[in-house]
Design brief:
Distance between the termini: 57 Å
Number of helices: 9
Strand order of the largest sheet: 7-8-9-12-11-10
Number of strands: 12
Shape: globular
Largest sheet: 6 strands, antiparallel, barrel
Radius of gyration: 20 Å
Strand content: 25-35%
Structural class: alpha/beta
Length: 299
């Protein structure tokens, strides 16, 4: 069987592990290499040819977009699929990636089914899919991402969620309902945020926040967060209305009351980003007066 290879580029080890596990489960025989930032990926791509590149956008040293532009300028690299994996869903960002030669786009957080569907399509277009013994993935129950073709037709991206160390942007923060604020008052809640998981978003409140993790409280929805599920936590700073999108995974969960129909759930999130820019943003958020008022780690 001919060898088919993919390079996975992301500064978060947890995200790389999730991607590699999904690829190995669905594409037996696929050769997988990884790089923990854009600069390392550039070095790997300079000496090794790959059939597909899966790359995060927001990374230290060299961003995914910068890597893409460099890669497309290399000999024989124009037709190799390059899929951007990121939370940047603004149309201008997508257009910029298209102009640089991106093949497709996956929004974070994503389900395994969404990832495999994009990889399958890319390998098929490149004529490599038939070289692999693939398993048929189950239909996705989450909201599927729009394709590049749809995006260029002017359709708005509907992301189930998304990472990242992108520059702070202006967004609206989800507001807790009056009964929610009253019910959580005893919990020492210090601020509001939004947790985005594949197929579902949770308006949440921050109980504690540090550079490594966050303890949040969410209202029980149609489904519960799953342990080790990856997602994105949107944190807003009131002072300038800027937002940090932090890649996380669900580390632990507990009900607020000792009963099966408990409405409120405590969720511990571990941060997986290694990007200094995002760590710096968290530091400023925690240290600022706004952070002390809304996201105090001493709760």
């Amino acid at each position: 069987m001919a060898k088919v290879s993919v390079l996975v580029v992301d500064d978060a080890p947890f995200i790389r592990d999730l991607v590699k596990k999904a690829l190995r489960s669905n594409f037996p025989g696929l050769l997988i290499e990884e790089a923990n930032n854009g600069r390392k990926a550039q070095q790997v791509l300079s000496r090794t040819a790959f059939d597909l590149v899966l790359c995060d956008w927001e990374m230290p040293e060299l961003s995914g977009l910068e890597l893409l532009k460099w890669f497309r300028a290399q000999p024989d690299a124009s037709k190799i699929p390059f899929i951007m994996v990121t939370s940047r869903g603004d149309k201008e960002n997508v257009v910029e990636a298209i102009q640089a030669g991106v093949s497709d786009y996956i929004g974070k957080p994503f389900s395994n089914e969404q990832l495999i569907a994009k990889v399958r399509k890319a390998l098929q277009r490149a004529g490599k899919l038939s070289l692999l013994q693939t398993n048929v993935p189950r239909p996705s129950t989450g909201a599927a991402q729009d394709t590049i073709a749809h995006l260029t037709a002017g359709r708005r991206i509907e992301q189930p969620a998304a990472p990242a160390s992108s520059p702070p942007t202006q967004v609206s923060r989800p507001q807790a309902e009056p009964e929610q604020r009253e019910a959580l008052a005893a919990e020492g809640v210090k601020g509001q945020a939004q947790l985005r998981l594949p197929g579902q978003q949770f308006a949440c409140v921050i109980k504690t926040l540090s550079l490594r993790d966050a303890l949040i409280v969410v209202r029980r929805g149609e489904r519960l967060p799953q342990l080790f599920e990856s997602g994105v936590l949107d944190l807003e700073q009131d002072r300038d209305r800027s937002v940090a999108r932090i890649n996380v995974y669900v580390h632990a969960m507990a009900s607020l009351e000792p009963r099966m129909d408990c409405e409120w759930i405590r969720v511990t999130l571990k941060f997986v980003d290694q990007d200094p820019e995002k760590l710096n943003y968290l530091s400023r958020l925690i240290a600022s007066g706004t952070a002390q008022q809304h996201y105090s780690p001493g709760a």
